[in-house]
Structure formats: C-alpha cells, structure tokens
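Please review this pair:
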Amino acid sequence: METDTELIATILSGDMRALETLMRRHNRTLYRTARAILRDDAEAEDAAQEAWVKAYRSLGTFRGGSKLSTWLVRIAANEALMRRRRRAAAPAAASIDEQDLVCDAPGPESEAQRAEARRALETRIDALPDDFRAVFVLRALEELNVAETAAALGIPEATVRTRFFRARGMLRESLGPDARDAFAFAGARCDRIVRRVLAVVVLAVGFTACSEKPSRPSPEGEQAYDSQSGDNPLRERTLNQGESGRMSY
C-alpha cells in the first residue's frame, strides 16, 4: 500500500486515481471533524468537500512537518469553524442517514438495537459543549493522540486533556465497546464526497489548461491537435485522469 507521501507525489504528477485513494483513506476523519463542529450531516459533507478542494490546491506546499492527517484535519476544522461563524440560525438537531449506518451484527433485531444505541450516543455527543465535542470526537472516535488533536484544533495540549476528561465524564454512561461507531461513515456518503471533489478538481484542471498561453506551432510532421478529427491529447488525458470521479446519479 502506498504511503501518503507517495500518493501526494503521484497526485502532483496529475493522477486523479491517487487523489481518490487519499480521499477514501482520510474521508471519515475529515467528515467527523466537520460534523463535530457543525452538528449537521449535510453541512459537514459540504465542509469536508470544500476542505478537500482546498487541500488539493495547497498540496504542493505540504512539507511533511506533521502527519498529513493532522494537516487535513486542521483544514477541515477551519472550514467548519468558518461555516459555524457564518451560520446565524440555531444548531439543527442530529440527523442520521440510515443508509450510511454500518453494522456488523448478524440479525435484523440485533442490528436495530445497535443502530438505536448508536443514535442515542450520537445525540449525547451532539449535546456536549462545542469545544468539548470536537476534542472528544478526535480523541475517542478518530483516536488521535493529544499532540495531534492540539495541532489540529490549534489549542494547547493541556486544554485537550482537560476537555477530553470532562467530555468523557459527561458521557460515561453512554460509552461502550461500540462508541467508535458513532457518526458512521461509509457507502453513499463517502462516495458522494469523492465524486463531487473529483468533479471540481477535474474541471479546474481543464480550465487551467484552457487558460494557458498557446504553445508554439508544432514542427512540421508533428501533430498536436487535429481540428477535423477532434483529437486533443490534453483533453483526453484530463478526462482519463478524472474517469473515476465522473458524476453518476
């Protein structure tokens, strides 16, 4: 399996399949980060999508001073915080998309019980104060360590420890072996974010290519573009790179 660093190098060379792989690897963390701050499923998806677009545009500036996941979470957290500041309305109640709930229980009765317990836990997590909720989700659900959580949220490590301790105290009765299943992320939700981000990126690549200064005429006998046949190598390469990201409804 390719490392994040190897995937970044491949993405920067223009391979959109590598971007899709990177997104599927870190999608859940970005979504849960945004969801912890916004308390809204749809808006969290939008925030995660925008965070990926911003991360892609800045990928060449990532120098590996911290883990890529920490860098990505920081972008997602900033995007979600900006959206929360803009939002004038009161936070919406928890909304759970049933098709995205993942359960490994063998039977429908057990599955329903797990889903009900998960919804109850998610409701209690949503009720945590904003600052405590973000720390709890990153520490307990995503299992980031204290230093990574502090870097992602831009707060001191001591603050992370205090908020996590208090959040766990508030939720102690709700926590169980399946706590990490809260705000499950799989299937349709993950696919939606991947499709939308790849569509934006591929469109941007095509626009950038069209905006470039015309190249010098090709030497005689060397054909760069046939206006009659419509063959355009740049367009063909862009479409091939974005093949996996085509929108389908």
Observations:
- The chain has a mean pLDDT of 74.
- The domain at 4-189 is CATH 1.10.1740.10 (Rna Polymerase Sigma Factor; Chain: A).
- The two ends are 31 Å apart (CA to CA).
- Residues 188-211 form the longest helix (24 residues).
